[in-house]
Amino acid sequence: MAGPPLDPAEVAAALESCLAAADAGTAPSVPDLRLAVRGTLRAFAAQVPGHSVEVRVPPYAAVQCIEGPRHTRGTPRAVVETDAMTWLLLVSGRRQFADAVAAGTVRASGERSDLTPYLSR
Q1: Domain with 108 in it
Q2: What is the CATH number of the domain that holds 27?
Q3: Distance between CA atoms of residues 27 and 108, nearest Å
Q4: Do the domain assignments include residue 2?
Q5: Could you tell me if residue 29 is inside a domain?
Q6: Which residues pair with 80 in a beta bridge?
Q7: How far apart are CA 48 and CA 65, in angstroms?
Q8: Residue ranges of the chain whose pLDDT lies below 50
Q9: Which of 23, 67, 71, 103 could form an S-S bond across to 50 if both were Cys, CB 3.0 to 4.6 Å?
Q10: What is the 3-state secondary structure of 56-68?
């Protein structure tokens, strides 16, 4: 995912703001949600580099990650898609990947699409 550099402190503050909103049962601000999703997706892709899985959090961002066969055109072999708040709950350790899949808030298909080992690092 290309784009201008993101300040890690600003990403962390946006993530905390979004999680606090979730705890309060309110909607986070769109700018905080956008920054938190983009920042955490970039960090995730840096932590598990590769091109075999595409993680999508529409409408904010998508990244390719995890070693394996490279995706170059069309629909990738492995896709994980979720909403912004679910992604933030996953990367913060507040939600388990398998639970989100079972609840239907994460759609994961294809080889290597189980992110459990990478989210628990």
Answers
A1: 8-119
A2: 3.30.1050.40
A3: 25
A4: no
A5: yes
A6: 55, 108
A7: 6
A8: none
A9: 67
A10: EECCCEEEEECCC
For residue 119, what is the DSSP state? H
pLDDT tens-digit map of 89-115: 999 999 999 999 999 999 999 989 999
Q: Would 3 be classed as within a structural domain?
A: no
**What's the number of domains the chain is made of?**
1
Q: 64 is written with which tokens?
A: 């390719």
Phi, psi (rounded to 5 degrees) for 47? -75, -35
* Distance of alpha carbon 76 from alpha carbon 85, whole angstroms: 23
Rounded Cα distance, 119 and 85, in Å? 15
List strand residue ranges (DSSP E) for 1-121, in order. Answer: 53-57, 61-65, 78-82, 106-109
Q: Residue 83 — left, alpha, or beta (φ > 0 → left; ψ -120 to 50 → alpha)?
A: beta
Contact 120, 53 (CB under 8 A): no
Give the Cβ contact number of residue 61 at 10 Å. Answer: 20
| pTM (two decimals) | 0.92
